[in-house]
Design brief:
alpha/beta, Deoxyribonuclease I, Chain A, 4-stranded mixed beta sheet, 5 helices, 26% helix, globular
């Protein structure tokens, strides 16, 4: 499977070269070119998700982080609707009470959400889960506890099934939140084990 994670950058009121109206066709073109089977997205508002759906071959699951419905940024999971059956899905928040929208620990900016989905591959019959996250960008305690909560939720929701994790963790490979995930033993870093070695820049950032 061809799985990707893509922070598409939220749509803001500022009319600058990176505004969504100028780059949405480039985003769709990139997705079309790489022909992703599964794509975890971060930062997208509802109308941005709707624009990506114009590609025609995808559906998505995931709620808005502000109200658990449509409000605010989403950590939505796109999937090829002709290849995969969506068997189950849900969301939780990176907070002390993960069942309701809210901030957690030392996060002060905004709610942070993880959306998950259970799929069946129509080609192989295999069942697997995808967890797509966006960690806080300011709170160190929040990022650390988000990794611990993510591992707990993976165990609760997916059990012994195959799991893929995508996301924007607001961390570098050596940072504690990433090390917590890697040291658990269940998750493997695709950057290190992918059949096709990574290429291109190590990372990019646009605001």
């Amino acid at each position: 499977m061809n799985i990707a994670t893509f922070n598409v950058l939220m749509d803001t009121k500022r009319d600058h070269p990176n505004a969504w109206k100028y780059r949405k066709e480039m985003v769709k073109g990139l997705v079309r070119f790489h022909d992703f089977d599964i794509m975890g997205t971060q930062e997208a508002f509802k109308h941005q998700l709707t624009d990506i759906l114009e590609l025609g071959s995808y559906a998505y699951t995931g709620s808005g982080r502000d109200d658990g419905k449509d409000a605010g940024e989403h950590s939505a999971i796109f999937y090829k609707k002709e290849r995969f059956d969506l068997l189950d899905n849900g969301d939780f928040w990176f907070a002390e009470n993960p069942g309701v929208p809210g901030k957690g620990w030392d996060a002060t900016c905004c709610n942070r959400i993880c959306s998950w989905a259970k799929f069946k591959d129509k080609e192989t019959g295999k069942v697997f889960f995808v967890f797509n996250s966006h960690y806080d960008h300011e709170g160190r305690e929040a990022r650390r506890n988000s990794s611990l909560l993510l591992l707990k939720k993976i165990e609760e929701i997916a059990g012994g099934n195959t799991v893929f994790c995508t996301g924007d963790f607001n961390a570098t490979p050596d940072d504690e939140p990433i090390q917590i995930l890697k040291n658990d033993g269940r998750l493997k870093d695709s950057y290190l084990i992918s059949v096709q070695p990574p290429y291109g820049t190590e990372g990019t950032f646009n605001a």
